[in-house]
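Sharing a chain and its predicted structure for anyone who wants a worked example. Both blocks are below, sequence first, tokens second.
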Amino acid sequence: MGSVDTKRLRGEVAARHGLLIREDDPAMALVTMSEIVLEQVLSEAQLRLVGLLSEAEKGQKRSQQEMLVWVQEEMGRTGTALRVQVQRDIDAGRLQAKELVVQLSRVYSRSVVRRWVAVGIVSGLLLVLIGVGLGVELGRWLR
């Protein structure tokens, strides 16, 4: 801290209070003492403020680390829950796909059986018609 401008100080005192203070006046010693005390108090206040700022910074870093750990834990929990839900959805999809395959297999096997039944009936009718036709022709030929 800079030294007090004694000329300016004496001028202000003279202007405000009408008192003339000389350089060797005891009041000037009080001004010097006050200046020294003020410098000491400000220095101590500065040290305390630096300490408080340091503690606040440490607390802020500690809080930041705690928040980071919490966020990481929450992300882990959320990721795990998401994986579980996705696995459930996949399993449900597999089950639905399996059920669809079984249903399609039943429908296909029914249609295949129906086709073979139809082929059998048509073949049987053809054989009957061929037999009837041969019988009629053989009857005419033998007459």
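Comments welcome. The radius of gyration is 55 Å.
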